[in-house]
């Protein structure tokens, strides 16, 4: 498996509209538009930071994973995403190493990326996302 870089940090927010100002006004990052990923009940907004990005995530529904996360832990860092060269290969390798996966096969994420999550019990509580673009 080849990890190319930290692709993005996923940050759960109650409302992108209400919370984006810190990122855009205070930090001066550019918000590149939003995208709804209905399968994950989420609206995402990407803000490039050098070679990586910040991803703000807002739930579209009270029973979505981001809403549940905020209910349990409050807003904050939801996941760390590593860009991999080949996501199928990476998942197969991790499975072989006995790493618990949430996604056995990649699903479709924002921006047409292929993404998969590893189980936090395998990663010291950090939700790790693999993504291939
Ligand atoms: Zn993400």
Would you mind describing this structure in some detail?
23% of the residues lie in helices and 38% in strands. The protein has 133 residues and is α+β, with helices and mostly antiparallel strands. The protein has a single domain, classed as 2,3-Dihydroxybiphenyl 1,2-Dioxygenase, domain 1. It has an 8-stranded mixed sheet. A hairpin with a 5-residue loop joins strand 6 (107-108) and strand 7. 25% of the residues are buried. Bound molecules: zinc ion (ZN).
Q: Name the poorly predicted regions.
A: none
* CATH-derived architecture: Roll
Strand content: 35-45%
Largest sheet: 8 strands, mixed
**Mean of the pLDDT scores?**
95
The tally of structural domains comes to 1
Q: Strands, helices and their partners?
A:
Layout (H helix, E strand, L loop, with lengths): L2 E10 L3 H11 L7 E4 L4 E8 L2 E8 L5 H9 L2 E9 L2 H10 L10 E2 L5 E4 L10 E5 L1
Parallel strand pairs: 1-4, 5-8
Antiparallel strand pairs: 1-5, 2-3, 3-4, 6-7, 7-8
Bound molecules: zinc ion.
In short:
With 133 residues, this protein is α+β, with helices and mostly antiparallel strands. It is built from 3 helices and 8 strands; from the N terminus they run E-H-E-E-E-H-E-H-E-E-E.
Notable traits:
133 residues, alpha+beta, 2,3-Dihydroxybiphenyl 1,2-Dioxygenase, domain 1, 8-stranded mixed sheet, 23% helix, 38% strand, globular, binds zinc ion
């Amino acid at each position: 498996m080849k990890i190319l870089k930290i692709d993005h940090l996923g940050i759960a927010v109650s409302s992108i509209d209400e919370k984006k100002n810190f990122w855009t006004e205070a930090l001066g990052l550019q918000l590149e538009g939003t995208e709804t990923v209905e399968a994950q009940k989420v609206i995402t907004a990407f803000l490039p930071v050098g070679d990586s990005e910040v991803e703000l995530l807002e739930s579209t529904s009270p029973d979505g994973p981001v809403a549940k996360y905020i209910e349990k832990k409050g807003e904050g860092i939801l996941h760390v995403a590593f860009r991999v060269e080949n996501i199928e290969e990476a998942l197969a390798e991790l499975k072989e190493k006995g790493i618990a996966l949430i996604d056995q096969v990649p699903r479709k994420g924002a921006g047409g990326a292929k993404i998969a999550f590893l189980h936090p019990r395998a990663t010291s509580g950090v939700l790790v996302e693999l993504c291939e673009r």
